[in-house]
UniProtKB/TrEMBL annotation, chain A:
The keyword Cell division does not apply. The gene is pstA. One of its GO terms (cellular component) is plasma membrane. GO terms for molecular function: phosphate transmembrane transporter activity. It comes from Sandaracinobacter neustonicus. InterPro entries: DUF3333 (IPR024573), MetI-like (IPR000515), MetI-like_sf (IPR035906), Phosphate_PstA (IPR005672). This is Phosphate transport system permease protein PstA. Keywords: Cell membrane, Membrane, Transmembrane, Transmembrane helix, Transport. It is a multi-pass membrane protein. It holds the Pfam family BPD_transp_1. It is found in: Cell inner membrane; Cell membrane.
From TrEMBL, chain B:
Belongs to the binding-protein-dependent transport system permease family. CysTW subfamily. Residues 235-452 form the ABC transmembrane type-1 domain. This is Phosphate transport system permease protein. Its main location: membrane. It comes from the Bacteria. Part of the binding-protein-dependent transport system for phosphate; probably responsible for the translocation of the substrate across the membrane.
Amino acid sequence: MTDRLSTLDAVTPTVWSSPQMQARIRRRYRQERLFKYTGIAALALAAGFLLFLMTSVISDGWTSFKQTEISVPVVFDPVRLGVTAEQAKADPTLLRRANFPGVLADSVAKAHGDEVEIVSDGGWLALREAVEADPALIGKTVPMWVIATSNIDQLAKGRIDLDADEGDRPVNDAEVAAWKRLEAKGDIRTVLNTTFLTSADSVDPELAGIWGALKGSFLTAIITLLISFPVGVLAAIYLEEFAPKNRWTDLIEVSINNLAAVPSIIFGLLGLAVFLNTMNMPRSAPVVGGLTLALMTLPVIVIASRAAIKAVPPSIRDAALGIGASPVQVVTHHVLPLALPGMLTGTILGMARALGETAPLLMIGMRAFLTSVPQGFTQPATALPVQIFIWSDNVSRGFVEKTSGAIIVLLLFLLMINSLAIYLRNRFEVRW
Amino acid sequence: MTIGVGFLLVLALGLLAGWLGYRRGLGFVATHSTEVGAVHSRPGYHAAYVAVLALLPALLLLTIGAVMGPGLVSREVLASVPAGAVGPSDLEQAAFLSEVRGLVSGSYAAAFNPQAESAAAVWKAASLRYGLIFGLGALALGGVGAFWGWTRLRPDFRARTRVEKLTMGLLVLASLVAILTTFGIVASLVFESFRFFQMVSPAEFLFGTKWSPQTAMRADQVGSSGAFGAVPLFWGTVFIGAIIAMVVAIPLGLMTAIYLTQYAAPGFRRWAKPMLEVLAGVPTVVYGFFAALVVAPAVRNFAVSIGISDASSESALAAGLVMGVMIIPFVSSMADDALTAVPRAMRDGSLAMGATPSETIRKVLIPAALPGIVGGVLLAVSRAIGETMIVVMAAGLAANLTANPFNSVTTVTAQIVALLTGDQEFDSAKTLSAFALGLVLFLVTLALNIYALAVVKKYREAYD
């Protein structure tokens, strides 16, 4: 250090044109640029990851909104069906026990051969619906579009690498040949996947849907909102407007701040121990999930609501008190309406977090395999993130596609909710 | 069902009571319109007073009915079945009751147990009877309450004061929920952990290095003991959450914060910040899916290509990397706060002395903001070790005590999920150990949070 300084002294360091000085300045500017580029690179890396995640999910998942169907001339043979048109007209309940799977299997074998399975196990449901709508179809031959198996579906969507060895890909050569025959005959088409949007889980990817999980999520979110919003707002009002400064309110403040940072899975353990094991509430039910998530969301809402209340200027309170309003009237007539947009924004953001939460719901058993859409708050249900988790365990191509499809739906919902929060914030929030 | 109808009826009663109170209040105003101050409260407060007196006791009774009703009905149903038809264990009784419930709701066409058919009739009768008792009781109670309240209304009756007192009570109750939740968490974790530590010694749990919680269902099975040494879990949690994730998140989060606060134009900032918020808003299950499907195979292929043949497909590195990316926005926003809290004079002074912006940042801003940044990083660590879905989906369940990032490790949260999903008896050491793990996780995150918040607070005060 000292000898370097002495050599600098020798050439008078303040001479800016000296080559040493110029070199140092260049070095420092280079470092400056480098530092700045590191910052840009860090940001680009984060953005790149986000972009990569989104494109990978969307490119994997967008085809789950499409479905492959196969044209089959269905022979509604009354003998094979076990029901005649007259019997069906007289007693439609007979159709519930009629042999539609057999009819479909015969028709498919006749039209397309039976060496490989090309039509989904649930494809016959479309036949039953058609006959229930019009019993006169029995005895006729009707061309119908029936859901294809997941393998044919993936082939039709171009998801399978045909150049790979037969052992390396999930479909065998016979299925590829069958698919090519169908393509050549024009007996295959791709339509909007209503099954995915309207049904619940299934063991077959082509029959699995997200509506059951989505409705479970809605039911859970309703309970969460109904509990956490009023309680959170009331607690925030008390702490911000009325609470005396003493040990109790300190305790409340500390516990709210800490609850906001407690890992979500701990709330799941709480729900399991208290709601399920102590209170004997029904397992897997949206009401328990909603309660658990409400406890988790509560601190978020309290903190946001307190910030919103704090932002209301004291002059408004003083003015109201000055003309004779009671403290409660000050809050209900003035502070609350003014702070409400901020409270709502915080609540919506908290709800978005709750809607994407998985771990606590796993703890209280909302991961059951359910093939029916939940009908009430106390019936077993699952939620969309949990459905994603359940499907992600499944390695078959069809379920990877469905998982990504469910993720797209979940992200769309979160995007909508967050946009609503941003809109509310921009539209109603007053800067004092 | 009947409880639901009772609830609606009680609400209607409350509305009616409120309306009557309102009319009464209006009457006071009309008759005393010339005297100033003769009527204490406005009609709305009279209405609220009567309505609250009608609703509060009635709703309380209905809640009791809704909570206790199913238990009373089940007891009556079980009592109606001839002795011996249903086994004495809780499991058999629960199975029988769910069968009866299925029959009543119509979701079962026929019952497996011959007693269920007659029990279903008992169920229907009993639930109707209890519904009527609680529903009518609530209505009567509400009616009495409303009448009593209504008779108390006078022009000088202080309805507003009373309603406001009730409101205050409600506010205090709401803020007590937070304490109750904290208490509930601590109580349930401590209670279940205590039961666990009666079976396994705390020393073995905290310092043992072998984790294999598979306890046998029958005594004669091999390997029935199970080992509950949680050190591999603690190590895995620290390795993924506090080491790998932080190696990713600290530089990236800090650099994005520096760039956004010191270099970026306001217009660019307006775009870049929401981008980071989107990154923070993606549900963890999505990160987990991405980690398991895309990152983990890539990491494995990379490991194989550099000659590590035993690389696991569920590696610590894959989970840690993705978790690090998830934490970036968090670290970035904490660093952002810390950097902007540094007084502008310090920065301007350094720039005025001829230092370049990067020199100012490295030699002045970061040292000055260090306590805040460290506090933020500690909060990020606490968040990372409590994160569940990424490790459940990408890190695996093998409890290895290894520092090789290409190996599979498991974490506390992943084990909690593994131990508690699936059907187990609730008294086994295996399920109870999940609560002991939860207790450790809760205490560690709590300590980290309290310490980090104290650091951040002290640092803010230093510059205020």
